[in-house]
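Renewal narrative, Specific Aim 1. Our central claim is that a sequence can be written position by position from structural information alone. The example that follows is taken directly from our test logs and has not been curated for this report. It begins with the structure tokens describing the chain, in the order in which they were read.
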């Protein structure tokens, strides 16, 4: 590692001002600071010293995502192998050819077969997200003449987990580009965005290409196979119509977005984010409180025509992307509320609105993406009035 550090440092004169490659300095700086701790120190007026920085924050989030990523790879392969092992459908395409050339069979009881086949779908999507996001990050950093921020890395890890395994890669590139450029860079870059870039990418893809990101045919990586998610089944006939047990939904061995099906994996990530101090436990708990409160309200109201009114809180908890949204999306430190009181209000509103969208709009049974984005827009307003109220109380104590 010392050799690599010396090699990178020896090339620095080529990229600094006056060097032959000075226009590519953001790219050099990104590689240098990603691989090693920078030697630069602050030279301005007094400042607060802390062990945390943007790179460590982003890496912490990526580590917290690992349980969801592992589950995404395994479950994607498991769902496909489960269908293919029945013999009614045949696997085709380059993924199957590589899979077969490695000596694997479509056996859902084989962990390695599930991981190998799932990786054939998840890894390309992950690569496209990071390549597209990295391209725009480096381009804007070069134009603005500042260092490359690691913020795009989290988008590149979050977005693949929210997508279906069958989504075309060119759509992934377009969606990632939209989220990075129009949800982050146009506002000034990392730390200045109003909306969560990964969710904006997901929303763009959902409304621009609904056929490739919604419906029964997109959740299992088998051509021609259709299998409804638990949310779609509940929207048609309520809890009694769900073909999966609560335990299966909690663990995540069901069709759905690649990394959002497992509530258990999200809980592991939540524990790590809370322990590290990166994720707000107030927002997570507030989302849960809002979800439970609105679920019980809809249960009490009831409906003879809409079975979603009867879905109980424990099923809202494990169906779809509630856990993933509450742990990883709602807690985004840039687009979420900053004050402690504001975080409670922000989280409760997300929980209530997510259930409201699920229940009231049967055409769109998954509501957390829209709920988080809507509250992103109101987070600054919430903080403004919370701070204003605090100032008013302090003035009153000194009168």
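The sequence written for that structure reads:
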């Amino acid at each position: 590692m010392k050799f690599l550090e010396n090699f990178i440092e020896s090339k620095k004169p080529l990229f600094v001002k006056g060097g032959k490659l000075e226009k590519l300095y953001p790219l050099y700086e990104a590689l240098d600071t990603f691989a090693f701790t920078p030697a630069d120190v602050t030279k301005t007026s007094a400042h607060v010293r802390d062990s945390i920085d943007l790179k460590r924050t982003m890496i912490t989030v990526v580590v917290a995502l690992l349980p969801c990523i592992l589950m995404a790879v395994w479950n994607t392969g498991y769902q496909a192998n489960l269908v293919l092992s029945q013999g009614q459908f045949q696997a085709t395409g380059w993924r199957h050819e590589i899979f077969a050339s490695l000596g694997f069979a479509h056996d859902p009881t084989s962990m390695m077969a599930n991981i190998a086949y799932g990786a054939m779908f998840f890894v390309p999507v992950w690569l496209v997200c990071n390549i597209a996001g990295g391209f725009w990050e480096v381009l804007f950093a070069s134009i603005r003449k500042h260092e490359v921020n690691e913020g795009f890395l989290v988008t590149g890890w979050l977005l693949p987990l929210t997508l279906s395994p069958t989504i075309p890669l060119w759509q992934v590139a377009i969606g990632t580009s939209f989220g990075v450029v129009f949800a982050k860079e146009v506002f000034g870059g990392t730390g200045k965005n109003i909306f969560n870039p990964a969710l904006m990418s997901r929303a763009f893809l959902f409304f621009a290409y609904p056929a490739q990101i919604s419906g029964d045919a997109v959740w299992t990586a088998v051509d021609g196979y259709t299998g409804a998610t638990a949310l779609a089944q509940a929207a048609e006939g309520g809890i009694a119509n769900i073909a999966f047990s609560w335990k299966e939904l909690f663990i995540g061995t069901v069709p759905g977005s690649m990394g959002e099906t497992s509530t258990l994996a999200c809980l592991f990530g939540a524990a790590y984010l809370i322990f590290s101090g990166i994720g707000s436990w107030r927002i997570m708990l507030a989302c849960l409180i809002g979800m439970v409160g609105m679920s019980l309200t809809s249960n009490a109201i009831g409906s003879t025509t809409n079975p979603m009114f009867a879905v109980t809180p424990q099923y809202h908890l494990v169906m779809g992307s509630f856990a993933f949204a509450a742990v990883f999306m709602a807690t985004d430190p840039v687009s979420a509320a900053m004050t402690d009181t504001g975080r409670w209000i922000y989280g409760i509103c997300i929980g209530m609105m997510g259930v409201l969208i699920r229940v009231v709009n049967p055409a769109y049974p998954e509501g957390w993406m829209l709920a988080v984005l809507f509250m992103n827009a109101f987070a600054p307003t919430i903080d403004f009035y919370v701070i204003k109220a605090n100032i008013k109380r302090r003035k009153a104590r000194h009168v």
